[in-house]
Specification:
With 339 residues, the protein is mostly beta strands. Helices cover 6% and strands 37% of the residues.
Length: 339
């Protein structure tokens, strides 16, 4: 019989953040117009036994704001403020007219006055001088999962441990937690094939996790994150990737709007595919544009011709996208509670 073990203490979340030098959410960090109940989001997710499952990553509170200065172009953002301490463990989140324009990882920061931020990808074209942006800490394995706070199977041998697949610098990497050995090696997160401490590795913005659970019992995990109240931008890159839905709550494929930016085709192999996991079962979906007087435009599970638009991406769970081609796409996602 499956059992579920869950540690759901806010203090644990605070401790996990302090390990990587991050502060717990404060009232001034969050939009004051949001109701108190929406300032910190939390949901519980059960990771099933002996299966690969998906987990969302909560966004952390911003630690600074900046203003775009002239001569910002390409992957170089010139900020009017001194932001030199915010290095590769952070990203910039640029907004305009109440909508998030982009979230881009910082690779390097230099300059004691106006700061030059070297970014992982180009800024959007036409970005106006004076546009404000936030500096947000990247989530980490230790920030999301603590020092194995949720009792995942740990072992110094990766094949004998639960493994976490995370996106770092656009590349999916595998990690496991080793309990360490007294007077020899510490307990820590490690990338498979390495002995270095990986607990503080910055994860890509808007990414999600995949957990390969080897134990014969389920385990509960709490996902914490800051509330969001403006239109968010989700960037989907070529290849297989795992993404966190920007808002807490179930969303159906029809509601997601993914069909508006992904490649559509009646033949699954010629279409971008969305991967959704439920209870350890992963299914693939594609959007077919349909044929007049023959079949409707709709979401379909691969191998089926029935309408799958009501299929839910569950709250707290990441989803996968297997993206064809060589170009990234961006999806604007509106706050479902705005009115």
């Amino acid at each position: 019989m499956k059992t579920s073990k869950s540690i759901a203490l806010h203090a644990l979340f605070a401790a996990a953040l302090s390990l990587v030098g991050m502060e717990v959410l404060r009232a001034q960090d969050i939009d004051p117009e949001l109701p108190v109940s929406r300032r910190l989001c939390c949901c519980s997710v059960e990771i099933p036994a002996s299966a690969l499952s998906f987990l969302s990553i909560g966004e952390l509170a911003p630690v600074a704001t900046g203003t775009v200065a002239p001569d910002s172009t390409g992957a170089t953002l010139i900020a009017d403020e001194n932001l030199s301490t915010y290095n590769s463990g952070h990203y910039v989140k640029i907004s305009a007219d109440g909508r998030v324009v982009c979230s881009i990882k910082i690779l390097d920061a230099s300059g004691e006055g106006p700061t030059t931020l070297t970014l992982a990808s180009d800024l959007p074209s036409g970005l106006a001088t004076g546009t404000t942006f936030e500096v947000v800490p990247c989530q980490t394995l230790e920030g999301a999962l603590g020092a194995n706070a949720f009792n995942l199977t740990e072992n110094s041998i990766p094949a004998n441990a639960d493994q976490v697949l995370a996106t770092v610098g656009g590349v999916i990497k595998r990690y496991h937690y080793t309990p360490g050995f007294p007077s020899f090696s510490p307990a820590q997160w490690q990338e498979v094939g390495s002995t270095a401490d990986a607990g503080g590795t910055p994860l890509d913005p808007n990414s999600g996790l995949a957990l390969n659970r080897i134990e014969g019992s389920a385990v509960g995990i709490e996902v914490y994150g800051i509330a969001k109240c403006k239109t968010q931008k989700l960037r989907i890159v070529p290849g297989l990737g795992f993404y966190s839905w920007p808002f807490v709550g179930d969303v159906t494929l029809d509601e997601s709007g993914l069909q508006d930016v992904l490649i559509q085709d009646a033949i699954p192999a010629n279409a971008d595919q969305v991967l959704i996991e439920s209870a350890g079962v992963i299914r693939r979906y594609h959007y077919t544009p349909g044929f007049p007087s023959f079949s409707p435009a709709q979401w379909q599970e691969v191998g089926s011709d029935t309408d799958a638009g009501s299929t839910v991406i569950p709250k707290g769970r990441a989803f996968g996208v297997d993206k064809l081609g060589s170009s990234a796409v961006e999806l604007a996602v509106d706050d479902p509670l705005s009115f």
